[in-house]
Design a protein that fits this description.
Blueprint (H helix, E strand, L loop, with lengths): L1 E5 L6 E5 L7 E4 L8 H4 L3 H16 L5 E9 L2 E10 L4 E4 L3 E2 L5 H18 L7 E7 L5 H10 L3 E11 L14 E3 L5 H10 L7 H4 L5 H9 L12 E5 L2 E11 L4 E9 L8 H12 L6 E7 L3 H9 L2 E14 L2 H9 L3
Parallel strand pairs: 6-8, 13-14
Antiparallel strand pairs: 1-2, 3-4, 4-5, 5-6, 5-7, 8-15, 9-14, 9-15, 10-11, 11-12, 12-13
Helix pairs in contact: 3-4, 3-10
The chain binds coenzyme A (COA).
Coenzyme A binds next to strand 13, helix 8 and helix 9.
GO molecular function, one term: acyltransferase activity, transferring groups other than amino-acyl groups
Protein name: Acetyltransferase (GNAT) family protein
Keywords: Transferase
Length: 339
């Protein structure tokens, strides 16, 4: 059946079939072909091999199973999507990048299909929940949000992106605190400190039973992550006792630095330990052109205040997270629904 649908904001009437495209395929794409996706379309034989490789990686617990997918119909490509399955059973899906030629109507129509097919593709993998986390300024944000909400994903968290203003004046007085490089500590010491800094926080970890702090730490130390070099981590100490931790993440290619984590043990909060850690981090990486950023949960008032008072300003850009617990029954019924 052909429908005529008016697209808001376009002022044009598009003839669209109810099921556009009639059949959508999702293939895994070899990393080398990324730049050519829209030119060459998928190669199904290679796709099957790549998908099998990904499934083998997942069952052997290999970290960073980023899976790149392309939505196509035959050799006509519509969108590309990146997903990741991690060791804690999270299936992450990022918003698709649509082909430029697609109208807004077609993008809306495709987004739900892509989501459905993508989840279906990995239906045999043990997954705890699917999650999508993206910047509100992402070009496909509104289209994607409509699709995930329709698929019963629920709002989980919002985080603010803050950037450090170089012109900001900071209080040099606090820098006198004793701060040591993370290289002097074992991974176990750092994990213990990280766990101790998580007591009674306003952070999501307190409210979210699905957050696994040990897995968080393993991710920070993962050699594939820019945070892996723990010699640049900072540990605040009182006597021999570690009381605060800052994990920086420096990406020299994009000249960006992130405060990936900052925390202080409960008994030492409110004594400018957090401020001292941030000041020291900024001083250690005072490289021209390098800008520090931080992503902070909006509900974490102490952390927002700490960053603001250390010279970080709100960019008004937000990361939002939507999540859906994995339910095979629900997915089976969704997969069976006609498209
Ligand atoms: C966020 C955190 C690191 C702050 O460290 P801290 O050493 O207590 O902070 P400081 O003493 O240096 O205070 C810095 C500023 O934040 C304010 N602040 C700190 N804790 C606050 C609180 N609970 N409520 C309101 N303001 C607070 C201080 O008043 C100060 O502001 P000012 O400079 O205008 O006076 C600490 O609360 C913490 O470890 N929380 C748990 C872990 C966490 O959530 N980390 C953030 C993850 S990104």
């Amino acid at each position: 059946m052909i429908l005529l649908r008016r697209c808001r904001g376009h002022g044009r009437v598009w003839p669209v079939t109810q099921a556009f495209p009639p059949s959508l395929e999702i293939s895994v794409i070899d990393r080398r072909n990324i730049d050519l996706w829209f030119q060459i379309g998928p190669k199904p034989a290679k796709a099957q091999a790549a998908r099998n490789r990904v499934l083998a990686n997942i069952s052997s617990n290999t970290p960073h199973n980023v899976v790149r997918l392309v939505a196509h119909q035959g050799f006509e490509t519509y969108a590309r999507i990146a997903t990741e399955i991690d060791s804690r059973g999270r299936f992450q899906v990022w918003p698709p990048v649509f082909a430029d030629t697609l109208s807004m109507c077609h993008k809306k129509n495709l987004a739900g299909l892509i989501l459905n097919r993508t989840l279906e593709l990995f239906s045999e993998v043990e997954i705890k929940y699917s999650e999508t986390r993206f910047l509100e300024s992402h070009p496909a944000a509104s289209v994607w949000l409509d699709a995930v909400v329709a698929d019963r994903f629920e709002f989980t968290a919002a985080a603010a992106i803050l950037t450090h203003r170089r012109s900001a004046t900071t209080r040099k007085s606090s820098i006198a605190r004793s701060i040591t490089g993370g290289g002097h500590f074992t991974e176990t010491d750092l994990l213990d400190l990280y766990l101790a800094c998580q007591t009674d926080t306003m952070d999501r970890a307190d409210n979210d039973p699905l957050i696994d702090l040990r897995a968080d730490m393993a991710e920070f130390l993962d050699p594939a992550e820019p945070s892996a070099d723990r010699t640049i981590w900072l540990v605040a100490t009182e006597g021999d006792k570690p009381i605060g931790l800052l994990i920086p993440q420096i990406d020299r290619e994009t000249r960006s630095g992130w405060i990936a984590y900052v925390g202080v043990t409960k008994s030492h909060r409110g004594k400018r330990v957090g401020t001292a850690l941030i000041e020291r981090c900024l001083a250690d990486h005072d490289v021209p052109g390098l800008q520090f950023k931080a992503m902070v949960d909006l509900i974490n008032d102490p952390s927002i205040k700490l960053h603001r008072s250390s010279g970080f300003a709100d960019t008004f850009d937000r990361f939002i997270t939507y999540r859906k617990p994995w339910s095979r029954a629900a997915d089976d019924s969704a997969a069976a629904a006609p498209i």
